[in-house]
Every structure is written in structure tokens, then in C-alpha cells.
Amino acid sequence: MRTHHKLLKACLRQHGSVHQHCHDRSKCAPRSGVSLILVMFALSMSLVLTYSFIQTQSVQTQISANGSRRDLARNAARAGISDALNRLNSLDWQGVSDQYERPFQADADGDCSYAVSFAAVGNSLSSVLELNVSSRGTWTSAADSNMKSEHEITARVRLVPRIQGRTILPGDSEVASDQINNDGDFDRVTDYVLFAEQGYTSLNFDPGTRFDGNIWIYDQYNMFSDPAWSSSIRDTYLQDVGNRFVSFPEGSTSLSDARISTPHPIAGNVTFYNYPNYAVRDDLSDLKVNWSTTGERLTIPSTDYAAFSSYRLYAGGPLYQAERLGSTLYNRTLKPTADNPLGIYYRSGNLSVYDSVTIQGTLVCTGKIYFYGKQIHLTAFNWKDDSGDAIVTDSQLWPQLPSMVAHDIEFGRESQTTVEGATVCQGSVKGGGGSLSYPSALNISLSGTATAAPQGQPYSTIQLQEYKILSSLTANGDYAIWLETTGTGNTGTTGSWYPIVGFDHGQQQLTVRGEIEQSTPTSYRIERHKRNLIQIRGPVCAETYDFYRINEWVLYSSLWNDRKSNWNYTNYLRSILGMSDIGFSEWLEYPGNFAGWDSYYQTYGISLEPTLQIQNLVEREYRWEPPLFQPYDGGDANPELAGYRWSLIDWNETN
Predict the structure, then answer these.
(1) Average pLDDT over residues 604-623
(2) If you average pLDDT over residues 387-394, what whole number do you get?
(3) For the chain, which terminus, N or C, has the lower number of CB atoms within 10 Å?
(4) Angle at the Cα of 192 (from 186 to 197), degrees rounded to 5?
(5) Number of DSSP helices (H) and strands (E) in the chain, helices first
(6) Which residues have a Cβ under 8 Å from the Cβ of 215 and sit 6 or more positions away?
(7) d(CA 209, CA 97)
């Protein structure tokens, strides 16, 4: 109590009145409130920090759990992609439609699995052998199926088929091949430049036709039967052709060693299934052509047109559709695309082909193909792009489909057609017989040596080795270059015509339509291009052949007798002058011997110059029909080599 009074007095002294005391006391109250607030704030902060710590620990625990689940999904995806790549390289792969899902791991928290799928890339011609292989790894919570963690891996791979003749690397073996074997006798049939499967008269041809290579004939043939000449004049002519264009190595007279040069009609060995009659044997003797017989009957496999209508490039690969054609082709250029990588063009029924048609691929016709026009060019797809760069390794070893597959084929007399690649015909091949005819362009003649290299199909570049003035040339196909080549077997000096479609005077280069590779200089000559000319550079197989005559060869017998009489008189005069005799065929070629005759003879004479030529001078690997490849089955002997082989070209991972 005493203390209280002391405090009260002190307060009165300090403030002067009770009222003043009460007023100051009200000012002291907030101090204790602030303290309380500070205490409460401290407690709140403590609670917040404690809650944050607990929450952080919970989040860290959740993050750790999520990371573990992502790891499980990633591991599952990697297991799946490894499984998929192993499957691709085995016989278990079912193709691009192959899809499957497999478990990877399971526990009380959830299940983990992977799903694998395959898809074609196919967005360009160069990527048609590529696939996207996808593996999606998924973890799914056992408590809540909507709670998932996913990881996806996409690997891009490229098919590397084991082709015949490839370089064998470590881990590989030459016994393994992914190339599909051809049906029946097709591989042996295409060893011949011309294969005639059936018919009593399997082959009929007249002057103006030439075969560069070996021939297989089922039965007999008719040769040079349309000219109305006597047997003695015919024999004289054939004997002169044999003497003039056939040569032998020193010390040999064997026909099997003979080298037969252009324009001799048959530059190869003739194989008969049925023994030839006396007239045929006598003709071949006069022409100095080697022949033989065989007891083995070869046949052409039956064409399955449906295999071309829709096709796969390789077994298990994506399905493609051939481009459907109407009844005519005119002024068209057809080439492979990503949607039709082999360039197959399909016609159900007959087809007529007119001017300015270029086909890079395979022309398939269930009926008859008629070739009527000029500047027609067919060539099988060669695994190169538009610039001429190969889209595969060792493209020259890759199999090609035939350039043409049809039931029947006929070439018009006035057609100007080139076919590069194999021709398959289930029926007959007819036509040709076009007369010598040239465009009304300046008549020029250039010669020298040149090399050649293929560019974007179907073109090549010719490099002239000696300087020539090229300003008189045109680039519309009115001029052509003859490049001399040497064939195999009995085929001696020969060559082929390539129309000129461009030139560079400064670089001394020509651009020609047609594929040719000639790294060493060879002889050439440049002239106006024949308007009527059929050139097939590849093997031809059919049941029968009927190649038409050149009309100017069909003379009355009296005119042939007159020709032979004048020839004999020419040689009589030459003997008086001490000159050697001139052969009958050479004499007929000289236009000066046809004074007073029709202008054709006064321009060209009567020549063996071919307007239909079939040659097979480049070895190719031909495939009868698609697909081209299938996975190798190593069997019990080589199980490690089974399946396809793929190269990894890209890898991408996403959560």
C-alpha cells in the first residue's frame, strides 16, 4: 500500500493531476499489445517455417518418387527399343505393321511396360528404305490408373540389304543374301540378248536388224527371206557379210573365237533347242556364226501382273501402288516418287505410246504395247537421284526390275524408241523395219574420241577429247553421237546411238539421252539422228519374234539380178586396173551405183545399217518382280546371319 502511494505521488508530481495520469496510462497500454503481437508473429512464423519444412520434405519425397517412376519408364523404353532393334535383325520381325506391348517390371506401387511400333518414313525417294522404330515406356500407378509416367524413344534406321557382289566386312558373310531368287529360268534367260521360247518359226528377221550378243531359239528361224532374190544372190550376199565383218585371232579359225563387228546381223552364238534344218545351218555357215544345240528346255516364268499393281520394295516393307495409265501416252515424263519408288506404271489393257515420252521405271501392260512415236525412252530405275548421285551404296550392284513387262509388244516402222533394261513379253515382239530417214537439219559429220559418264537418269555427259566446233549442233535430238564399244563373247566392235539434247561449246561437252559410262576414250561420230530407230539395250525374252523388213530391200528379182550383174562388171573393171575385188554388200552400200534409181537409193544405197538393234553389253542384276528383298534365313547352319541388317541413323528421346 505504501508502495502504491509512492507511485501515485510520483505520478502526480510528474504529470500534475490525476487526469494527466490517466491520460498517460492510456499511452502505456499499446506497449504491452505490441509485445503480444510480436510474440504472436514469432509463433506464426515458427508455425509457417515448420509447415514449410514439412511441405518441402513431402515435395522432395514426391519428386524422388516421380523421378523413380520416370527412371522406370525410361528404362522400359530403352528395353523396348533394344528389343525392337533385335527383332528387326531377325526372322521374327513381321513388317511395318508389327506392333506389340510387353511388361517390363511390376511391384506394389505400379506396373511398368513398353509398347513398340514401326513406321515408314518415306517422305522422299532417298528415305524409302528408312523406318522409324518407336518404343514407349509407361509406368502406371497400382492405386490410380490415371497416374502415369511415360518416356518415348524413336530410332530411325535404314535397311542395308546384303546384295550379291558386295564388299564383305567383318561380321558379314558372302553366304548371306537378302536378294530374292528369281522364279524358274529367268536368270538364265536373261543371259541371252534374245530368248525365243516357242514357235516353229521362233524368230523372223530381215536386213536392218542386228543382235549384239548370244541368242537362244526354241525351233527354227527365218532370215532375210523377204527380198525377192535368188538363192545364189542371197548366198553371195551372206558369204560376203561373213567375210567382211568376222575376224579371228591370229592362228585360229574356230567360229567360237570369232569377233563379229557391226553391222553384221548376228554378233554372238546361237543356241537351238530343236536341231536346225539345213537351210538355217547353211546361213549360219555363210555368216560365220557359231551355233550349238541344247537338250535343256528353258522357259519364261508366268507373269503375275498383280505383283506390279501393288507392291513392296522389300518383304515386310510399306505397300505402294503403281501409277495407273490410260490407253495412250503422249508428251509425258514419268519418274519414281516416294509414293511409287520403283516407278511402276500400270496399264490394264492395250497401250499406245506416242511422241516425247520418257519413263524412268517399269512399264507394265496386261495387253499389247504399241510404240508409234518419236523420242520415246524407257529405262529401269537405277537407284540414283535426279542429279545422278546414288541413293544407295554400290548402286550398280542393286537389282533392277525390267524396263517393260507386257503380253505383246509392237514397234511401228516410223517409231524412234530406246529401251534400256530388260524386256519381258509373254507373247510376241514384232515390228521395226523402218527405212533410213534423217531430219532436215544441216548434214554434218564429226569424229574423234570421247569419254562418257551417266548423270541424272536418263542422261549422260559426253566429254570430247579433241576440240570441235559445235555451233552447228542443235539440242532437240536432231543429232546423235555414235559411241563405239566392244562387247563380250563373240561381239566385236559395236556401239549405239545417243541423241544430243544439250551441248557446251566451251567445255566441249554434250548432254545425251541415254545411260553410258566410258572412262577410257573411245571412237565416236556425230551425225544427224535416224528418225526411224529401235534400240533395246538389255535382254529381251518372248515366245516369238517377227521383225519387219525395210521396204527398200524388197526389189523385183530382175532388179536383184541387175545389181549382181553390175557388181560383177565393176569387179571385172577393177581387175583390169589391178585393183582388188569389192564385196557385194559393200558395193550395194555405195549410192553412186544406183544412178537413175529412186532418190532413196541414190542417197543411201542398199545398206545393212540397222534400224532395229538389240544389245546387252552391260551386266545387270535383274529381278523378275517385286519385292526385291527378303530377310535371309540362315537356318541351322548360320542362325546368326538370319534376318535383315539395318543401320542406325538417328535417335531421339522425349518424356
Answers:
(1) 92
(2) 89
(3) N
(4) 65
(5) 9, 39
(6) 192, 193, 194, 195, 196, 203, 266, 268, 269, 270, 271
(7) 51
Provide the pLDDT for residue 646: 96
Rounded Cα distance, 612 and 435, in Å: 10
The beta-carbon contacts of 62-71 under 8 Å, at least 24 apart in sequence, are 66/149, 69/110, 69/139, 69/149, 70/139, 70/149, 70/151, 70/655
Neighbours of 329 (CB within 10 A): 23
In 3D, which of 182, 601, 237 has the Cα closest to residue 422? 182
Q: Residue 530 pLDDT > 90, yes or no?
A: yes
In this structure, what C-alpha cell is assigned to residue 319? Answer: 505397300
Nearest Cα residue to 537 out of 449, 406, 423 = 423
Q: What confidence score (pLDDT) does residue 385 get?
A: 86
What are the cell numbers at 368? Answer: 499389247
Chain-wide mean pLDDT for the chain?
Answer: 91
Give me the sheet containing 100-106, strands edge to edge.
Answer: 100-106, 110-120, 130-141, 148-159, 646-654
Q: How far is CA 592 from CA 535, 556, 589, 603, in A?
A: 29, 20, 9, 9
Residues 6+ apart with CB under 8 A from 284: 266, 270, 276, 290, 291
Using the CB atoms, write b or e for 138-153: b if 16+ within 10 Å: bbbeeeeeeeebbbbb
Residue with cell string 525390267: 402
How far is Cα 383 from Cα 457, in angstroms, rounded to an integer? 9
Distance CA 533, CA 13 (A): 140
480 touches 561 (CB < 8 A)? no
**Which pLDDT band holds residue 431 (cuts at 50, 70, 90)?**
very high
Which amino acid is residue 273, in one-letter code? Y
Going 242 to 246 to 252 to 257, the CA torsion angle's sign is negative
pLDDT of residue 253: 92
What average pLDDT does the segment 414-420 reach? 97
Residues with Cβ within 8 Å of 456's Cβ and at least 6 positions away in sequence, in order, are 384, 385, 386, 387, 388
The CA-atom distances, in angstroms, between 13 and each of 2, 5, 24, 27, 239 are 16, 12, 13, 18, 162
pLDDT at residue 15, rounded to an integer: 43
Kind of pairing, strands 544-547 and 518-528?
A: unpaired
Dist CA 327 CA 207 (whole Å): 32
- Which residue type, as a one-letter code, is found at position 234? R
Rg (alpha carbons) of the chain, rounded to whole number: 42
Return d(Cα 413, Cα 373) in angstroms, integer: 10
Distance CA 651, CA 134 (A): 10
- Let me know if 371 is exposed, middle or buried by CB neighbors in 10 A (0-12, 13-18, 19+): buried
Length of the chain: 655
Confidence band for 17, pLDDT divided at 50, 70 and 90: very low
Output the pLDDT for position 465.
Answer: 97
**pTM recorded for the entire structure:** 0.88
Q: What is the pLDDT of residue 66?
A: 58
Cβ neighbourhood burial of 596 (10 Å; 0-12, 13-18, 19+): exposed
Q: What is the pLDDT of residues 357-379, one digit of tens each?
A: 999 999 999 999 999 999 999 99
Helix or strand run (H / E) with residue 598: none
Q: Would you say 244 and 580 are in contact if contact means Cβ atoms under 8 Å apart?
A: no
